[in-house]
Amino acid sequence: GAVVSQHPSRVICKSGTSVKIECRSLDFQATTMFWYRQFPKKSLMLMATSNEGSKATYEQGVEKDKFLINHASLTLSTLTVTSAHPEDSSFYICSARRSGGPTDTQYFGPGTRLTVL
Amino acid sequence: GENVEQHPSTLSVQEGDSAVIKCTYSDSASNYFPWYKQELGKRPQLIIDIRSNVGEKKDQRIAVTLNKTAKHFSLHITETQPEDSAVYFCAVTYNFNKFYFGSGTKLNVKP
Which residue has the higher pLDDT, A17 or A31? Predict the structure, then answer.
């Protein structure tokens, strides 16, 4: 199947710093990528939808100035957690929409474990 | 917005038995219903999906049924094996605009 990578896989940072997470579709072009947050033993919560060349669409309750999303190319979307605090610690997962062919499909990245001290 | 409910939250079965997980949704316009398997600390993996123009789909031991009228769909795993143990999530979307996930089912297959 298609491959989506995320970098870094794990990051520990101090409170107040910013952290950038990259999501790449390695073997297909993704006009749409999604960013999710997952708490331990919980479901995936959609944070925002990232569209190449346009502004991201954020879900209700997600601070767009806190979670900056940039989808600069058809294979890369980035999520920057600005001025991170301990409550931002979580598992962040991206996914990329693969279009074309008989049907669309969504492929997930491996996730990034963020720990804010 | 869409409301997705998933049951049960935990499910224990004996190896070889069948497991059934059910999801209901609220938006009748939703037209794509995937199921994901997630192991601890790993990414969700698509195991089967169904679109709104189909009532049932099967792939070896895994099947999904969709009842559009009642707005529910179910995952069926037959002849369960210990390696089927994981958390399973259903999801719902209309034209891939947004995905809404169920709360997850932790499946434990006892050898």
Answer: A17
Contact criterion met (CB < 8 Å) for B34 and A106: yes
Work out the angle at residue B16's Cα, subtended by the Cα atoms of residues B44 and B41, and round it to the nearest 5 degrees. Answer: 20
pLDDT recorded at residue A104: 77
Helix (H, G, I), strand (E, B) or coil at A88: helix
Residue B61 at interface with chain A, using a CB cutoff of 8 Å: no
CA–CA separation, A3 vs B49, rounded Å?
18
Q: What is the pLDDT of residue A102?
A: 61
Q: Do residue A97 and residue B96 have CB atoms under 8 angstroms apart?
A: yes
Alpha carbon distance A78, A21 (integer Å):
6
| Chain A residues inside the 8 Å CB shell of B103 | 42-43
Sorted by sequence, the CB contacts under 8 Å of residue B35 that are 6+ apart come out as B21, B46, B47, B48, B49, B64, B75, B88, B89, B90, B91
In this predicted structure, the answer to whether residue A18 has a pLDDT above a threshold of 70 is yes
Interface test with A, best of B94, B101, B107 (most A CBs within 10 A): B101
B74: Cβ–Cβ under 8 A, 6 or more apart, which residues? B20, B21, B22, B23, B64, B65
Q: Which residue has the tokens 């497991």?
A: B19
pLDDT band at B8 (very low <50, low <70, confident <90, very high): very high
Interface test with B, best of A51, A98, A106 (most B CBs within 10 A): A106
Structure tokens at A100: 């074309």
